[in-house]
What we know:
Keywords: Cell membrane, Membrane, Transmembrane, Transmembrane helix, Transport. Belongs to the binding-protein-dependent transport system permease family. This protein is mostly helical. The chain has 16 helices and no strands. Helix 4 crosses helix 14. It is flat.
Amino acid sequence: MPSDAARAPRTAGRRRSPTAPPRSFLWARRIVLTALAGFVLLPVYVMLSSSLKPLEDVSGAFRWLPSELTVRPYLDIWHTVPLARYFTNSLIVAGSATVCSVTVAVFAAYAVSRYQFRGKRVFTVTVLSTQMFPGILFLLPLFLIYVNIGNSTGVALYGSRGGLILTYLTFSLPFSIWMLTGYFASVPRELDEAAYVDGCGPLGALFRVVVPAALPGIIAVAVYAFMTAWGEVLFASVMTNDTTRTLSVGLQGYATQNDVYWNQVMAASLVVSVPVVAGFLLLQRYLVAGLTAGAVK
């Protein structure tokens, strides 16, 4: 029979660390995380299963398992409504708004974070205060401005992609400037001075030193601007026509006066979410770093 001294090492090896959390906490955490995962994944399962069902299965009472698996809804979504045209419009509008927003925000944020000028405080407060107002307040003024510009100059902003891009810049650009100002402020000024010593000017220091150092923050701002423009509904429903309609508004075409093609709605929703999900997965490491890049100076 082993002695107490022989059992002591094995008992000590099984002994829990004093800093380890109690088992009740570990089990509670597992239960909570499982419940949250189910809450998040349940709508995804409903969308996926409904997109693989015939219309009869989704028109009546909900069934957890489809009576028949079919990929027909994924083929019909391109013919029921001009989804390809809506997809192209959304890519052009969201991509152009993102590029313009990030480009202007980089120059503006660099100036605010590096230079002292008259009205700097008023400018930063004004940029930040624009985020206090709901977007619907700007809907009617922008509509009237676009219509009057079109009547007086012949430049068709209302119902055009360019007008929608300008509209999205009104609420994505202030946030981008405010966020990038914090990111650029976290980059040491000594790097700019070293670039000046090497013969760079202000623009050279910006693009060769500051932008690479703040790249995670720039990518985070670009992802925000793209996702905001990609899923926006209010302005897109008013500022577009049949030719320039985007996905967020075009998905309503699957609901007719006689019926709603729920299986095609679910299939189209999954298809249009692919660019956003793929972009998020590709830029995830930059996005996570960018969200905390300007938190501590």
